[in-house]
Amino acid sequence: MYNKYKEIILYLLFGGLTTLVNFATYAALAHLLHWPTVLSTAVAWFLSVLFAYITNKIWVFESRTNTLRALLRETLAFFACRVFSGVLDLLIMWVCVDLLFLNDLVIKILSNVLVVILNYLFSKLWIFKKQS
Q: Residue limits of the GtrA/DPMS transmembrane domain (predicted)?
């Protein structure tokens, strides 16, 4: 059963760890260092994207690029999609926390759930798509 759902299980595991990296970084910067919401979110996003790229490439999708061009395409596609989901995360945090004054930690969790789902779809269907 594990082999049948290996990719999804690993993505959820590493997606959860990526979310933990994102959430812990945000909480430390926003609540311990009192950085602004948007700056804390941006730094948390950057660190979590680096973690996600490495884990997704090596363990989740087992991507083996054999040319520099393929590696660059994959890396650029990964980061482009993460920029999109990162901007979405920033907008959600800004609107919900700074404009609507909702609880930042609750919104951060909800935003990350949406981001993880979108990122899986991008990775599976476009970035690490198996070549036939």
A: 11-128
